[in-house]
Amino acid sequence: MKEECLPKPNRGQLAWQDMEMGMFLHFGINTFHDQEWGEGTDSPSTFDPTDLDARQWVHMAKAGGFKYVVLTAKHHDGFCLWPTKTTDYSVKYSPWKDGKGDVVRECADACREEGIGFGIYLSPWDRHEPCYDNKDLYDDFYCDQLTELLTGYGPLVEIWFDGAGSEGREYDWARIMNLINKYQPNAMIFNMGAPTIRWVGNEDGLAPYPCWNTAQAARQSIFTDENTKWLQNTPRWVPAECDVPIRRGQWFWHPNAEHNLRSLDELMDIYYRSVGHGAGLLLNVSPDARGLIPDADAKRLIEFGIEIRRRFNDPIASTAGCGYKIDLHLKSSAYMDHAIIMEDIAYGERILKYKLEAKQGDDWILISEGSAIGHKKIDKFKKVETDHIRLIILEADADPIIRELSLYLVDK
Ligand code: FUL
Fold first, then answer.
1. What CATH code is carried by the domain that includes residue 102?
2. Which atom of ligand 1 is nearest to the CA of 72?
3. How far apart are CA 116 and CA 103, in angstroms?
4. What is the model's pTM?
5. With contact defined as beta carbons under 8 Å apart, do 391 and 341 qualify?
6. Residue whose CA is closest, atom 1 of ligand 1?
7. Residue 1 pLDDT > 70
């Protein structure tokens, strides 16, 4: 393929891919009803967190190493976490802070104070809103809600469009995209409309390998439903995001469900198979009926952040460079069992096949091999001692540009 024909990320996508990890927050009226999908009939009077503290959410996100947060401003039940003018099904009509609270504001402010990104989830499917069945009226209603969120809470890093419940339904995506382009041109758009990031295709947090960044591979997962039909045949860069709840099978908090909390090993496996496959990870954590991330989940987030840093903050050696062979000479022989390879994706995803070799005496032994590298590839291999590693690119669409090749010893 000609170099200039390679799909490339825009600046927003580049910045988003560098963040690597976001924390999803599912919180809403469901939190008070032990349920995942409310029907839109639960009274606002039941929304009453006793100790809501968005700063605690954001502190935990930072401790876990997450660079942004995505909050469910409105889930399928239609209940709005901000005092919207569009409906009386919101925090404004709840006892929490005597109806004067705004969860979206508190979360946005906490993110800003702590220097991490803020994004919103606004479910297109709305089981409460009476005008939902009238396409034109609901398009107006939805665009009004979105406008409030796009204009009232500072810069947004991501807007999450959930396809659930919307099968066969068409929304006015051209209009929705115009609003985003007008008010939040740098926000990433997840999954619907004119997506700049795509759903990985499962809710397990796992990207397949290879997980290419271009529309050729993305087409299957994003260009299938009515809502994206108008974009077909537009080859472009659409990296994948892997969403997964920290408690197996539960996006919202449920009482007595701590046994569903994933172990640190499970989280590390997810990390290797999302971030380590070049995709983004969006790990969901659910604030409880107090409005706080439960202690056990908070502890797990801290452990997760510590373990990622323990493994990958301190490389034995690193290099970067262009070309089909990259040598990494160590000052002295060392043990290693992991490599992280990154392409400079600003120039497109060029590498199609590679191998990594370690020098042993006069011989080279294969320690790992693969196809895609993209933003990041984490390779775990059998512990080896060497003073010279080489990365050989066996197939590429254009001259390879390696942003980083780093070696680590994780199993000390
Ligand atoms: C799904 C929804 O139906 C779940 O409730 C959750 O919000 C998840 C992230 O997406 O489609």
1. 3.20.20.80
2. 7
3. 17
4. 0.96
5. yes
6. 164
7. no
Model confidence pLDDT, tens digit, residues 345-386: 999 999 999 999 999 999 999 999 999 999 999 999 999 999
pLDDT of residue 95: 98
Token readout for 64 is 């876990």
Cα-to-centroid distance, 370 and ligand 1 (Å)? 32
Nearest residue to 146 (alpha-carbon basis) of 168, 107, 172: 172
Q: Would you call 303 exposed, middle or buried from its count of C-beta atoms within 10 A (0-12, 13-18, 19+)? A: middle
2 domain residue, yes or no: no
Give the least confident one: 115-119, 138-142, 197-201.
Answer: 197-201
Give the Å distance between the CA of 327 and the centre of ligand 1.
45
* Ligand 1 atom nearest to CA at 164: 11
Cα–Cα distance for residue pair 273/379, rounded to 1 Å = 10
- 279 and 337 both lie in a single domain: no
**Structural domain that includes position 386:** 317-408
Which numbered atom of ligand 1 lies nearest the CA of 163? 11
Which ligand 1 atom is the nearest neighbour of the CA of 37? 5
Residue-wise pLDDT tens digits, 101-112: 999 999 999 999
274 & 361 share domain: no
Residue nearest to atom 10 of ligand 1 (CA): 162
**CA–centroid distance, residue 162 to ligand 1 (Å):** 7
Contact residues for 127 (Cβ-Cβ < 8 A; gap 6+) = 37, 38, 39, 40, 76, 77, 78, 165
Measured by CA distance, the residue closest to atom 11 of ligand 1 is: 164
pLDDT in tens, 53-90: 999 999 999 999 999 999 999 999 999 999 999 999 99
**Same-domain status, 329 and 304:** no
The predicted model gives 168-186 an average pLDDT of 95
207 and 130 inside one domain: yes
* Pocket-testing residue among 76, 159, 162, ligand 1, by greatest number of atoms within 8 A of Cβ: 162
- The total of structural domains in the chain comes to 2
pLDDT of the residue at 222: 40
- Assign residue 373 the CATH number of its domain: 2.60.120.260
Ligand 1 centroid – CA 322 distance (Å): 42
Nearest CA to ligand 1 atom 4: 251
φ, ψ at 70 (rounded to 5°): -125, 120
230 and 368 housed in the same domain:
no
* Average pLDDT of span 157-179: 95
The whole-chain average pLDDT of the chain stands at 94
